[in-house]
Amino acid sequence: MVERPKSGGFIMVLPLLTRARMRLFVRASATLAIALAVGAGGAVTASGHGSPAKPIKVVGSGLNGPRQVSTGFGHLLVAESDAGFITAINVKTKRKKVLVRGLFSPQGVVESGGKLYIATGEPAPDSDPSGAPPSGLMVARPGGTAKMFADLTAFELKYNPDRQIQFGPDGQPLDALSNPYFVLKDRAKHGFLLVADAGANTVLKVDRRGKIRNFFTPPTVTTGACKTAPNNTKSGVGCDPVPTGLAYGPGGLLYVSALTAEMPGEGRVYVVNQRGKIVKVIKGFTAPTGVAVDKYGNVFVSELLEGSPPPNAPPPPGFDPSTVGQIVKVPRWGQRKYAQVTMPSGLLWRDGKLWSSAWAIAGFVGIPNAGQVVIVDQRAFRSAK
Description:
single chain; about 375 residues; mainly beta; Neuraminidase
C-alpha cells in the first residue's frame, strides 16, 4: 500500500506497505540483529513467537516476493513479484523451475488449459512508469512470452466501478487505477476467471475471449478510524476496500479478503453469492492479503503486517521483523485462533492442507531470496493470549 501525496486514499502497489511503514522496516533491519532461524540450506524458516517449527513446513524457499500460490502442471505455482517470475515448485523434491520471466510485478497466477494467466500490477506512484505496461491479466505458455489477455486498466478508465474520483486538477491519478492481486477460476456456469483488482476496488469476471465485466465491488468502509479517513470519494472520507484474495467455500459462495487501506481492525472478508450479492461480512482483521476456506467452512485469513510497528512510530527496542505477520483461523463455530507465519500473503486450501506464501515482503527488510511457500498444520493455530 502506498499513499498518493494528493489523496488520503490508498492504492495497492507492491509490496503493500505505506511509505512510513516501509521506512521503519528498512531501519529495523539495518540497526537491529534479526533473530532468524536458518535452515540447513540457508533459507529463513517461517516459524516464530517461540512456536515449534514442525507445524509449519517449508516446501519452497529462495523466492523473491512470493504472492499468490496456486497449482498447475502437477506443481505448486508461485507469482514472484520482486523477481518478475512465475515459478513452479515440485513439492516432493522442493526443486524450482521458472516457467515465465520478464514480467512486471506479477502478483497472481492460475493455470487453465495448459496456459498461465497472470495478474500484473502497476508501478508505484513515485517510480518511473516509463516502459511499464498497463496492469492487466497476461497469458503465457511455460517458457513463452506473456501477452496481454485482458486490459484491466482500460476497463477501469472506461467504467470506474467504485465511482471514485480518478484524477486531480492536474490530470494525475489520485489513486491506483488498476492493480490486480489475485486470480481464481470462476465456478459459475460459462465462467472462466475472476480477478481481485485491488487498485480498482473491485472483483472482475474475465471470459475466455478476454472480455471483462464487473462482478462485485465492496463498499467503501466508513466505520472506526475509516469514518474520518480522507479519501478521493465524493464524500471525501472512507477507506478503500482493496480486494486482495479470492476463495470458494461450501455452497459455491465466494470469499473476498479486503485490505481496507491497512486500517487496523477494519479489514474484511466479504462472502458473496453467484450473483455478486453480499450474504455475510466477517470483520476484525488487520491488512488481510489472502483468504482460504476448507470444506467445513473454516476460514483462514493472512494478515501480512500484524505485529509491525505503527506507521508513524519507531520500532521498539529489540524489534524482530521475523515476528511480523500471522494467519487467522475463523472456525465455523468457536473462537478465532492464530498461527504466526512471517509476512504471509497468498493462501491456498488444497488436498486437506493450508498452503501459504511467507516472507512475502522480505526484500524490504534487506533479505533477498528469503521468500517461501509453507504448509501450515492445524497444530500451529493457537488461541489468543
